[in-house]
Amino acid sequence: MARKSEIMKKSVGIDYSIFESGSIAFDYERMMKETGYSLQEIEEIQKQTSVGSTPLYELKNITKLVRKFSSPGKGARIFIKDEACNPSGSFKARRAATSVYHAQKLGYKGVIAATSGNYGAAVASQAAMRGLKCIIVQECYDSRGVGQPEIIEKARACEAYGAEVVQLTVGPELFYSFLLLLEETGYFNASLYTPFGIAGVETLGYELSMDFRQREGKDPDVVVITNAGGGNLTGTARGLIKAGAFDTKIVGASVNLEGLHMASDEQFNKKSFTTGHTGFGIPFATWPDRSDVPRSAARPLRYMDRYVTVNQGSVFYMTELLAQVEGLERGPAGNTALAAAFSIAQELDEDKIIVVQETEYTGAGKHILPQLTFAKENGIELIIGDPKEEIPGKNIILPKNPGYMHTTEIDLDKIKRSYIKNCIANYKVETVTENDLEFLAQDTKSSKEYVINVLKDLNVNVER
Amino acid sequence: MDAKKGDWVRIHNIILTPDKRASNLPEDTRKVPLEMWDKGFLLNEEANIGQEVEIETYIGRRVTGILVEINPYWGHDFGKCVPEILYIGRQARALLKEGEDIE
């Protein structure tokens, strides 16, 4: 659609061209600074609608279970930040709070977001608080009209907050409908990927550091973050850096859905996770600017130290375990990072601290029973055994005991190379400038030397 | 007559027929249309299911489409019994207790 960039500019109130260099590089920090808000301002904005300052729990029984399967002296303490305590039941309220505040400040009458997940409920809830109208556009059904219970529940929640929910069948053309709605209504595009959205998550990282300094006298050693579009990881990591927690390691975790095509009508209901999975995690890490804004503020490779996957069965298992031995009944999607933490904690010394930085609400549809019932009804076999043997779209394997929980490493080097390759291809660059080089080094948390070596392999010239 | 003016209804539309769909889609998705559902208050004086109608959505937008449901409700629930998960809590509790004995 030819009017795309014009509609986009009007609907987010940002002229992205002023940050552009004309090549690969753009001024990320300037974009975050000039269009976003300071951390203190965001804390104030979020306080207005009671977002943030969520409780932190030490998962003592889960830690005890970890130690049963660790070598002597190993088994880090696991903590969880209970983001389900936010108004709409997930950390996404932080992201929505800044976007909706900003929309109101600029005088927009309403907000629109394209999301099938917790973000929709968050935008609808914040819009209700600020008296703005809200439309949520969802990819919801397959061609039989069958929808994931988790997504249906989200539609219900959005309606409960007074939003209009436009439900669509599978396909990336959703973006086209989304643009038409933006054009028709003139509402604000509460994209997940604007600087406001990402800056909203910075308070989560900042709180983590403050919580632990107060409670344990130090920053957490490792923070595990469920990774999909990259905003959760980017915002949390930036908040930790703003707090001065430079030594905290950032680990991304996604549910492994390898082999399932995200735009496939037939495979749409063969997956049991609608977010936090590799179907978003990998493409958004290797090409963040595929999002619904020209330059995404979510750039996970800038901050990620390690990236792991877990299988679907392990996440369901951890969700049940969290309820059974910690007394916390929460939704499955937020527990992706918890499943990874269970395994990573076994590598670390007992005095180390590992934090899972979010939970999400649970309810009809968004709970392991409806989700597993749905999987079975869609021909997925549920097995108790070795998660390593799980085949996404065919079966779900619950670990037969906690010792079978494991993570699989994603080769970050490969992901970074793929990102650089995509930058070259998408910007049709023949010669990389010094400015690009610096940008790519920052965007991949590497060095100029690293980028030069990758470019050499791609036969791309470097202007020096 | 199935519905009258002011009733809360659900409508359906075909946004793109298969021949108009994006070319980069998987084969199975390209074979089917892109469909849309929305809800609102019926603006027609009266209508039957299957008829084209106009609605006013909850936020006040006017949309036309085929009437498919009156007083639509959410049917999702807490699922059926999934016996496969029942071992998880008991096994973990037993492991935790065993630990106390050793310590």
TrEMBL record, chain A:
The Tryptophan synthase beta chain-like PALP domain, residue ranges: 50-356
Essential cofactor(s): pyridoxal 5'-phosphate
Gene Ontology MF terms in the entry: lyase activity
Biological processes, Gene Ontology terms: alpha-amino acid metabolic process
Protein name as catalogued: PLP-dependent lyase/thiolase
Recorded superkingdom: Bacteria
Keyword list, A-Z: Lyase, Pyridoxal phosphate
Record field: transmembrane: none
The species this protein was found in: Soehngenia longivitae
Automatic annotation (TrEMBL), chain B:
Top-level taxonomic group: Bacteria
Pfam families for this protein: OrtA
Name by which UniProt lists this protein: 2-amino-4-ketopentanoate thiolase
Record organism: Soehngenia longivitae
